[in-house]
Structures are given as structure tokens and as C-alpha cells.
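Re: your question from the hallway

Yes, I did run it. Sequences:
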Amino acid sequence: MTTDQSPLIRIADVDKTYRRGAEEIRVLAGLSLTVQCGEFLALMGPSGSGKSTLLNLLGGLDRPTRGTVEIGGERIDALSDRRLAGWRARHVGLVFQFYNLLPVMTAERNVELPLLLTHLSKADRRKHVATALAIVGLAHRTSHYPRQLSGGEQQRVGIARAIVTDPTLLLCDEPTGDLDRKSGDEILSLLQTLNREQGKTIIMVTHDPHASSRASRTVHLDKGQLSAAAPA
Amino acid sequence: MLNWLSQISAITLANLKTLPERRGAAVAAAVGIAGVVTVLVGVLSIAEGFQRVLAVSGSPDVAIVLRSGSDAEMNSGLTHDDTRLIADAPGLARNAANLPLASAELFVVINLPKRSTGTDANVPLRGVSPAAFDVRGNLMMLEGRRFEPGKNEVIVGAGAARQFSGLDVGKTVRVGQTEWVVVGVFAAGGGVAESEIWTDAAVLQPAYHRGDTYQAVYAKLISAEAFHTFTDALTTNPQLSIKAVRQSDFYADQSTQLVGFVKGIGITIAALMAVGALFGALNTMYSSVAARTREIATLRALGFGSSPVVVSVLLESLALALAGGVLGAAGAWLAFDGHTTSTMNWQTFSQVAFAFRVSPALLVQAILWAAMIGVLGGLFPAIRAARIPIAAALRET
Ligand SMILES: Nc1ncnc2c1ncn2[C@@H]1O[C@H](COP(=O)(O)OP(=O)(O)OP(=O)(O)O)[C@@H](O)[C@H]1O
Ligand SMILES: [Mg+2]
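Structure:
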């Protein structure tokens, strides 16, 4: 792996605490993480350990209670809500466990959504959508609605939507968590291809050691801290 | 800007496409708004219809002369001499025979059964002078002929003929000791006269022991401007104690009170219903936002702004409200426009026949009410939608 450039992600000394009534839950405690461009990082850890919380901080969906989140040289924890929305649209692709497709839209229209935030013409948008759907192997299902697709196919649409704006960073929260082994494997292969052939930096939350084995590096989250080694 | 609009249209379309799944609540909200609009249009069309009748009743070049101090024919009284002096005043129009177009009239109220309910209601029975037909100018016999002077004959306004039973041509109406034969039915351009029964003043006077007195003189002027010459001459004449009003002003004044009252009632009822409909719309839109929390959070996660979310919720609410508004307005128009009825005119204590009038302005007003309910009903849910915390909403599966 090339390391001749500055890291894509640099998180330093991040705390995230949630309030639940009088109780304060410190989910992330002084956590630091550096991810290089082109890495495929698997993020593991017990349920409730804060994996999704960390991913949300990286995606600019939430803000740390303390500490800094720097992505591509930009302090995204310091951006206003409005600018953060624009930043998300340009720089991250999100893949969800339950796909989060809009049921009233066809695959094509779902994939087109992030492009509505760009200045592309309708014709250009259509071209980009077709390319993204071809990459995930769904060129033939463009006008199907989510309910007409299998779980694996819906997740492919979700991935196409995540890559259609060609972001540098893909954040995937348990992308195979709702799929059977075969469909899950296909999704993992697809992510691996995107990482290797398109140079996407991918961070993937997973519970499945089989899935994490496809990644280039695995980190564990427990008690608010990250560790590289597998827990004992 | 362009992509802001495309964000709005994408979200709004997605919202509207989920309407069928929420049709129960959506239809209930729209029907609530339709109800408000129907009531509003229905009641206000009464006011408009009534106003219309009185508006077409009066002409600016006709003066009504009453005893000074009275503001209605009912409590006015003029002697035969008064009426002669009035007929000689300057500014009066004259007919081919050079006779002044002034009609001395008197006015009694009789009871007749209404067709609709069979119960008695008041009808004005007006005794007129021969000039009355030329003074009014718009009188037209629809059926039969005019009454003959000196005979117990009456002609009946079209509105009265419609509202009261027993007023068909050829029938005899018995009032107290006197019998009147109906010899004709007339129109008067939709005005108040159509709600009256007319006979010869000279016949009515003895029948009601009125001697040689009248209550008003209806005078046709050379022009609307001649009114001032006419009134100045009369009011400066020491032999007379009278006042003159333009017929158009006379009826406009009569209508303001009743019209104001009816409008007040209509708007009050509609406003109360609007509060109910507003809660219906709020409820629908809150549940619509709740049902789409995850979708909205997903779109926000993809980078959609919060203002397109607000606008799209408002648009959805507005669309529902306008659908209800148009439905209600169309229903009210079909149900009420042209529906004829009569009501008490408090100035004459008799019935005035009129038709409900659903005017385009009224429809526009009603649609604006619907739009307002829609916007208000969508506003708070829209704000809630914009404030959905993205990360937390995405956790809720
Ligand atoms: N908005 C919130 N308000 C309060 N507590 C929260 C909130 N979000 C997360 N938490 C809590 O923070 C902790 C970490 O949650 P998180 O979803 O990050 O865990 P996770 O590692 O992704 O778990 P899982 O493997 O089950 O997805 C949990 O205890 C959760 O209840
Ligand atoms: Mg999680």
C-alpha cells in the first residue's frame, strides 16, 4: 500500500457521550484512528460498543462531544450543519444494513438521488446511474422497485447509490448483516473490487469474522477504545 | 437553485407517492377541509344572493319619498296633498301625456301559507298608482295581465308566486273581509318587487281603512343627477315634512344589516370548523412525517438540505388542502348556486325571495381558506421533519 501521502482520515482523542435522562453514557472515550487512502478497514466489536456511533462521526452524520475528526484535510466536526450536508453529498457514500432505499422509487431513481445534489444535467445523471448500476451488476433491473428485488439486489442498489457520485470514502454499516451467506459473499466481493479496482477507501462495520477477512485491516472497538489485535 | 428545486420535487414526489398508503388519514383531512369550504361557501352565498336582490332592486334615478323621520315605508305616512306637491317638484321625469312619473303607494303586510312548509308568512301587498309601472321601468308581465284600476285584482311578483301557495293566475286570495283575484304574474329584474303583491292604491286604501293616505311616493327622475334639485325643492318647501332617498341607497342600506349578520354567522361557523380541520391536517401531516422519518433521515444523510424537506411537507399539506378545498367548493356550488328561498326582510317584516349566489370571488375566498389551513397544518410537522436528528433516526429501524 502506498503511504506516500497524508492519511485520508485522522481522528484524534474523540469522546462521544450520550445523555439518557440523568445518566451519561460515554460510548467513545479518547479514541484515535488514522486511515490511509485506499484502505479497506473492518470495524468489529460487541453490540453496543459504539461502532455505528464512530461511523456516524466519520460520515458527518453526528458530531463528537470532544476531539477532532479530520477527513481529506478538512475538520468536519467544525463545519456548520448546512456545509456538512454539502460535504456528505460530495465526499462520502453510505451503505446501510437495511439498504434504506425509497420504496416508491425505482432502482434507477434511487441511485439518481445523490446526483440531484450536483449540477449534472439530466442526461449526465442518467449516464452516471447506468454506470453505477452496471458496476454492481444490476444493469438489467434498472426500472424495478425495491420490493421487486431480493435483499442482495437491494443492497447492490444501495451500493450503486453510494458510489454514483464517485466519493473517495465508503462507509458501510453491517452491509451483509441482513443477507444470507451467498448474497453476503457477493456483496463483499463487490466491495473488495471497488476497493482494489476503483481505489475506494472503505470502512465496514461487521460482526462477521468471515467478512472482516476480506478487509485489508481489522480494528476492534471495545469500552470506547480501538485495538488492532483480536480480543482475547 | 436548480438543484434545490430538484431536491424539493424529488422529496415531494416521493411523499405524494406514499399517499395511497396513508389514504385513510389523508382523505379524512381533505374531507374536513372540504366541509369547512362547503359551509363557508353555502352560508356566504346566502348573503351574496340577498345582497344581489337588493342591489338590482334600486336604481339611482328613482327617488323614494317618505315622511321625515322614518327610515322605512312601514312607519311612514303621507297625505294626498303631500303626494300632489311631491309630484309637482322639479327634476321629475314625465310621460308622453306630460304627466309626472310619480307613484303614490301604500303598503300592508298580509299572511299567506308558504309552499314549502304550509305555515303562514308575511307578504307585502302594495297599492300603487298608475305611474308605478313606468317608474320601476323593469316590470314585465310573465303571465296574465295587469290589474284593472278600481277592481279587487292583484298581480303577483314571480318570487312571491314561487314561495307562496294559492297565488296562481285565476285564483282568489281571501285576506280578512276582502277577496282578491290574481290576474297576473310579473318579473322585476330579480329585484325586491318580485317578492310583493301589487294592486290599485285606490282599492287598497278603503279595504284597509286608510282614508286618502299613502306611505311613500316613488318618483322617476330626469336623471340620477336631478336627485339634488328634486330633494332641495322638497325639503325647502315649508308645506312638506319629508325626506327623499335614492332607491339604490335605500335597498343597499336594507341589505347591509342582514348581509352583515349572515356573513358573521357564516364566518364564525366556518372558523370553528376550520379549527377542527386544522387539527385533522396537523394530525395527518405529523403521522406522515413520522411514517417517513427514516426516509427523511436517509435523504438528509445523502446530503439533502433541511429546507427542501420543509417545503416538501408544506407542499404535501397544501396539495391535500387544495384537493379538499376544490372538492368542497365544487360541492357547494352544485348544491347551493341558484337555490331559491326567501327570508325575512326586517325593514318590511315580510319575505324577500332570493337565490343563493356562489360567485367566483366567493369560490376564490373559500380556496384561500383551504390553502391557509393546509399551510398552517403543514408548518409544525414540516419543522419537526427538518429537525429530525439524522443519526438517531437512522438507528430506528
Ligand atoms: N442517540 C442516542 N442516544 C442515546 N444513546 C445512544 C444513541 N445512539 C447510540 N446510543 C447508545 O450508544 C451505544 C453505542 O451504540 P452504537 O449503535 O454505536 O453501537 P454498535 O456498536 O453499532 O452496536 P450494534 O452492533 O448493535 O449495531 C449503545 O449503548 C446505544 O444505546
Ligand atoms: Mg450498529
